Amino acid sequence: MIYVIRGQKVMLDSDLAELYEVETRSLNQAVKRNLDRFPPDFMFQLSNQELISLRSQFVIFNETVKGRKYRPFVFTEQGVAMLSSVLKGKKAALVNISIMRTFVKIRALLNSDETLSERLRKLEKGTDIMFRIVFERLDKLESETPVLPKRRKRIGLKK
């Protein structure tokens, strides 16, 4: 349920509403009553192009926005955290904790990917050096190997 849009990890209003077990309309109304808590880096509305792009990429996405009059709102990690102050109740708190843990896990995974990519670069650099050494030694062996005459006496059984 987490998408990358405009370079940010976000969740759709309809997906959040499903998790919080409220109607999307109710979630959006609660947010609109508290718009001062949701600056553009917490929440934004998808453009038509972004909506078309998501629809073409994900079959499941079509079902989540099917029959809607308006383009969906998406919430960044900070926006999801702010939802807990707008939506009250035990379920809202539990869902919010779960979502925040997921965002933290994704961040940790992405950070470990940077470490893995750095390790891969070092490995590639190391293998380049090793291959160069191997090829240099093969060239040296080839140059030191005496050239055998084309017609020479065969050793072994004759066929």
Task: Characterize the structure shown.
A 4-stranded antiparallel β-sheet has the order 1-2-4-3. It has a domain at 2-112. It contains 6 helices and 4 strands; from the N terminus they run E-E-H-H-E-H-H-E-H-H. Helix content is 63%, strand content 9%. A hairpin with a 2-residue loop joins strand 1 and strand 2 (8-12). Helix 1 crosses helix 2 (24-33), helix 3 (48-57) crosses helix 4 and helix 5 packs antiparallel against helix 6 (90-144). The longest helix is centred in the last third of the chain and has 55 residues, at 90-144. With 159 residues, the protein is an alpha+beta fold. The protein has helices at residues 13-20, 24-33, 48-57, 59-65, 77-86, 90-144, and strands spanning 2-5, 8-12, 43-45, 73-75. The N and C termini lie far apart (71 Å).
Short description:
This protein is an alpha+beta fold. The protein has six helices and four strands.
Distance between the amino and carboxyl termini: 71 Å
Largest sheet: 4 strands, antiparallel
Mean pLDDT: 80
List how many beta strands DSSP finds. Answer: 4
Structural class: alpha+beta
Beta-strand share of residues: 5-15%
Q: How do the SSEs run, as a string of H and E?
A: EEHHEHHEHH
Q: Spatial order of the strands in the main sheet?
A: 1-2-4-3
Fraction of residues in H or I helices? 55-70%
